[in-house]
């Protein structure tokens, strides 16, 4: 009987470095309030957003991802050619194939790394961290580049009051590698497709092909449905991630949820009963909702501002269209 060799697993994994890149344009509430018949005050009260960052017409989602990835690799202290796999989460790469990850791997000098895209919207970064953790601990990769990148300004209707005013452009990246000690807790993730229509495109690309008068598909959401789900159901997934990692609220130094809405962040804090000492990611105020990029961008900002330090224990939580969710406890690099 032939006995196959298997990859030799690594005991543990951790995040080695994080990088981010925001769109270069600062878009204020006043800049977008007119077409949605709103005001700076209304947007601030409902969302906590003061400005959002968007990229110019000459930059696409891969351009943002490339800059964020280079920063993450530099922060990790490794060379691009040491990347064994690239996992990119995005809903705004408008080419069905080849994958954005394969192009990105070439751009950053990581060929011949394995490369693939995932579509998990605002939970995409946390989904990808879970996959990177598994790849490293299984022995199938030593270093995995995880990227969440979006240019959501390409898929908004400026007259839409449901979601357009929330959205920004940016990319966040992390390198996950082997570790002598546990650095990434178990990923708690899942989906509820019965609520898929609560965050959606106006129509599909095949609908557009059949009827060009429909115009470019844009995003919509049922705000109340999403708010109730995110504000009152999602906290239990974050709690489950803490339980799976064997930690309690008193062990958490940093909490970084998806930057969907400041009111949702506050509601999650109440339900999780985290100590007042916990540092909370609130990047949404100046960056907006960047979907798959929001969690790493919020962490990158906290690092840049000196609000967190290496070794801090961070509870990170993504949730969004699908509806999908993912959470894990990680040790910050």
From TrEMBL:
Pathway: Lipid metabolism; fatty acid biosynthesis. It catalyses: malonyl-[ACP] + acetyl-CoA + H(+) = 3-oxobutanoyl-[ACP] + CO2 + CoA. Homodimer. It is found in: Cytoplasm. It comes from Xylanimonas cellulosilytica (strain DSM 15894 / JCM 12276 / CECT 5975 / KCTC 9989 / LMG 20990 / NBRC 107835 / XIL07). Keywords: Acyltransferase, Cytoplasm, Fatty acid biosynthesis, Fatty acid metabolism, Lipid biosynthesis, Lipid metabolism, Multifunctional enzyme, Transferase. It is an enzyme of class 2 (transferase). This is Beta-ketoacyl-[acyl-carrier-protein] synthase III. HAMAP family: FabH. Residues 116-193 form the Beta-ketoacyl-[acyl-carrier-protein] synthase III N-terminal domain. GO terms for molecular function: 3-oxoacyl-[acyl-carrier-protein] synthase activity; beta-ketoacyl-acyl-carrier-protein synthase III activity. Its EC number is 2.3.1.180. One of its GO terms (biological process) is fatty acid biosynthetic process.
